[in-house]
Amino acid sequence: MGESRKEIQRTRMWRYFLDAATEVIEEEGIDHFTIRKIADKAGFTSSTAYNYFKDLSHLKFFAAMRFMSDYLEELPAYLEKGNNTVEKWLYSWECFCKHSFAQPKIYSVIFMDNLGSIPEELLEHYYQIYQNDLIGLPDEVKDIIMEHNFAKRSALFIEPAVEEKFMEEDDIEMISDMTLLIWKGMMNTIINKRRNYTQEEAMQMTLYYVYESVMKVIKPEKRDEIKVSYTKIDT
């Protein structure tokens, strides 16, 4: 059954505001993100914008998603470098750190900011309304945001490492949670300027702690098979 005229109009308006929000981020940065600027750019009033988004943070969240495309385009090349699940997982972290520390405020909006509700519920709500055109992004991005729980995705990714005899099943959840918390801790440090790390230093420090954490759960007899390593840098 085709969409009703009302549904088509609603989706079109969603895209107007999302396109305008993306332009505001590109031109002024995410720090200068206001509903009035977005509404003006879209050619509507602020109150109209609120008819389509419950909260400004929701609009910011979906607009920020559009800035993940560079990371997603580069990720397959990083994964190809790995010869086993653990190496592929470490390389995926390297790609994620490279892009997230290049745009910390964008990635913070997606993975750290308070959205007023848990991301899964937020995504489900908007997906029910705009399911034919969620945010104008490729399917790979939709897959990522609809499975928003980063640690859960990470756990699913490294699950084959159990079959490959690198680690025990009991370690999967712990290592996926721990590595996410390491990244969040460094991201919070950078954004709040608690330490004067460069983008490269933040990336290297995070990868070092991620690597050390995972090596703690790798079975001793399998450690030599992991050819990827990251060292601590002097800061």
UniProtKB/TrEMBL annotation:
Cited Pfam families: TetR_N
Source lineage: Bacteria, Bacillati, Bacillota, Bacilli, Bacillales
Q: Could you list this entry's UniProt keywords, alphabetically sorted.
A: DNA-binding
Q: Please report the stretch or stretches of sequence annotated as the HTH tetR-type domain.
A: 11-71
Please report the organism this UniProt entry assigns to the protein: Gracilibacillus orientalis
Name this protein carries in UniProt: Transcriptional regulator, TetR family
One Gene Ontology MF term:
DNA binding
Superkingdom of the organism of origin: Bacteria
User: Which residue ranges does the Swiss-Prot or TrEMBL entry mark as DNA-binding?
Assistant: 34-53
